[in-house]
Amino acid sequence: MDNKNKTDFKEVYPADFISEGVDQTRGWFFTLHAISTMIKGNVAFKNVISNGLVLDKNGNKMSKRLGNAVDPFSAIEKYGSDPLRWYMMTNASPWDNLKFDIEGVEEVRRKFFGTLYNIYSFFALYANVDGFSPEEKEIPVAERPEIDRWIISLLNSLIKEVTEHYENYEPTRAGRAIQDFVNDNLSNWYVRLNRKRFWGGEYDKDKIAAYQTLYTCLVTVSQLMAPIVPFYAERLYKDLTNVSEL
């Protein structure tokens, strides 16, 4: 191994984490450490995520013989890959067994993705009517109405919480936190209580503050959810920022 390859190898070894099924605990996980210890005197990886099994909705192992297996390609074709990812990631921690119910995927698509899309559509409709641009001079948060400061405060708390969960390999908690923020705080409270600020009236400081606040929330949510649902998050981010390529 030449010097360049040795340098490159040191940057990625030991690996930050490895992910395999629970059945690999005594096989692949142990073997990598054993070989690495003998050759390098060090561990092969720093963290491990051991995936549980995907069971049917009644907790039985899926099999063709029992007729309870779900064709993943058919599920993706019908519901989309990202709703399927979000359902599987938020329904159970990666290391726990997942009781898979196809109706749960439809519920996720309707309640979470549908809600997020409705918020974006509401924002885009009125922002286009008023000619709002993210490039406008930002109104300081301290000068915005209390409800704007409230949702921005919750958004900052969400960023901190989700970042910590991702760094601690807790994607399930990260996804649930994002979902609760979108469904409860952003949709049921902020948008519902502020509709009149977007409807008609003059394009004044209060209206611009509302646009900037909702815009910030949507862009941030698209970034936070990207590790779990990259396709949907990228489309949402591009639509909001008018970016053709990332």
Structure notes:
By secondary structure, the protein is mainly α. The chain is 64% helix and 8% strand. It contains 9 helices and 4 strands. The chain has helices at residues 3-12, 25-40, 72-79, 81-91, 102-130, 146-167, 171-198, 205-225, 230-241, and strands at residues 15-21, 45-51, 54-56, 98-100. The strands form 2 sheets. It has a two-stranded parallel ribbon. Strand 1, helix 2 (25-40) and strand 2 (45-51) form a beta-alpha-beta unit. Helix 8 runs antiparallel to helix 9. The longest helix has 29 residues, at 102-130. The mean pLDDT is 89.
Low-confidence stretches: none
Give me the secondary-structure category: mainly alpha
Report the helical percentage: 55-70%
Estimated radius of gyration: 23 Å
Order of helices and strands: HEHEEHHEHHHHH
Which helices and strands, and how do they pair?
Elements: H1 3-12, E1 15-21, H2 25-40, E2 45-51, E3 54-56, H3 72-79, H4 81-91, E4 98-100, H5 102-130, H6 146-167, H7 171-198, H8 205-225, H9 230-241
Parallel strand pairs: 1-2, 3-4
Helix pairs in contact: 3-4, 4-5, 4-7, 5-7, 5-8, 6-7, 6-8, 7-8, 8-9
